[in-house]
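Sample 1 of the test manifest.
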Amino acid sequence: MLEGTLIYGFINSVILMLVALGFSVTFGISGVANFAYGALYVMTGFLSWLGLNALGLPYWIAAPAAVVITAAVAALIYWFILLRVRGLVVSEVIATFGVGLAILELFRYLGFIGFEYTLPPIIDASVMIGDTYVDAQRLCIVATGILLAAFLWFFTHYTKTGLAFRGIAQDERTALTLGINGDKVAALSVAFGAGYGALAALVILPLGTIAVNEGYNVLVNALAVCIVGGLGSTVGIIVASFLIGFAQILTATYLETSWMMLVSLVAILAILVIKPSGLFGHQKQLEERI
Amino acid sequence: MRKFTCLTAIALLLTALFLVPTGAVAADKIVIGVTTSLNFLEGKEANNAVKMAVEEINAKGGVKVGGKMLPFAVESIDIRDAAPGVPVPEALLGMEKLILEKKPHALVVGPFRSEALLAGMDMLSKHKVPLLGTIAMSPKTEAKVAKDPKYKYVFRVSLDAKYFVGYIAGVMGFLGKEFGFNKVFIMNQDVAWARATAGIMTKILKGKLKWEVVGHETFPTGASDFAPALMKAKMKGAQVIMPVFDMPQSGILVKQWKGMRIPAVMAGFISPLTGPGAWKTFDGKIGGVLNAVFELGSIPSAKYPPSKTFYDAYLAKYGKPLEAGHGPAPAYASVYLLKDAIEKANSLDPDAIVDALRATDVQSVMGRIKFTKGNQVIYGKDPNKQALGCFFQWTDDGKRLIVYPSAIAEGKIKLPAGMKSAK
């Protein structure tokens, strides 16, 4: 039992990390809390499904195309909506949340409700780890999580665009003096974050069905991880994912499954009371207020 | 004098208006309202079944009332009550909008969720609109109807949670007797009918059947990862897992059960696993699962031909087989019940229709239909005596084999591959 709990706790943690990475990247660089993130996640699922089933495309075309389209839509959202309200935090939140709602409810209106909306697993098999059976898709999720976290580190340390991301994140005005176009980088960061969310969707959604309401759940989970870990801190995201991920599985295993969702909410409340900037957050303004 | 004449004219006009009987046949059509979650499978297919019945009746001339033949007309509205969180206020607004704007003579199908139906009963009573419900399943509605005559307008043609429990208990009894199983793990969705089913079933299992309920988990609508609960079921030695779900995500439970190779029989109700399309949707990973169909007709039985006639007619009309195991057959039957009741009452007066409906005793696509005092259709084990629900088992080659009740069974329950009898 303990072995199974540890295995599934680890997998659940990686799922949370994958879901939160894209949201955190965007906020850390552009300062935009992209509340349309969950909607873009779900959109990737439906686009892939449409590519596979309505257009009859092979998976290796439908899936990457869905990621590219999602990232492009996110960039367009920045360029045509967020650019005008950038810096006005409340307006940014309202705008992104509104766009997210519109996307999700459009899918609902168009009738994208049903159990037929599923994505195929990358590997369709079960693997025995110790005495516990684990479906191979969950192992793919773990591999993807490790790869994406590693790539993010590499990208932001060894590529020109990644260094520009970090420059903007550290001090936008100074970055401007070095010729880095703040708006362009911010648009890229929103697209990059959405792309990360889209990749997460491709590996996580085969575990369940593609449902409109998943968009809201993903947003809540991403927010919980980012708030606990500290907005914009990648290390914080990883640590918070594992704290919440294991807490959720332990709650489900030893208490009630229906209490799993409460774990995220309790974690948000607790961290806001104890350390509002999050475990690894560096928002001094918040620190100074308490 | 002029003032007196004017007042007299108004008084006469008002008197004339009040003297017109409400059930008088002044209409040129009989409006049937469909107020449900049209985007959900059960709601969508039930609405299709209503339209099919209406077309059939209209093709034969319509409904004879007051010496005239009137056609049926269908007005549908999506009240979205099946959404997570069960938005009851929105559902009630939708229902009232249709009642006020389209002036239906009766509603069929009705709210998807019992929460919305229970909350809407006062509205139906206020507007005196008979409802023949075919999806919401909580037995609380019948209790209200039986207790207070003002709720007499609410009927249920579909299965309710109490009768459903009767069918599950029958299957559990068979599993116990045939394979020596006595440990069950219950998993249900957190909605009224599923909670009621799980609650009643727990009492029966522990009491009459002498089973041990080794665990009971409730999942919010929308949950899609069941791995922790399945691990728990395995750890506690469950021999049977009893799922009670109607949300689209619940089909994944069975895929996870297969993937994790949980050594327990899956026997209950998972909405997405009911139709023939489930085999392809879930990549053939549902062999061995025992699933309920709430009303005969949503699955055809050669042993009860009317069910097959309906099933085949739906396939011919819409080009797709019925996928929902709950809703379409009673929705189709409801239109015919309404036709019979209006013709018997020879009026569109709601009270007269209700009285005629209460006296119903007919054979339908889902068996014989008679109502209880709580306006609930009586379900049993023989379609010639009562309405019928059933259990089927997915075979390893993707067929649905009816296994319970014996009156229409096509084969015996078999254990899924890799499972052994406890005897």
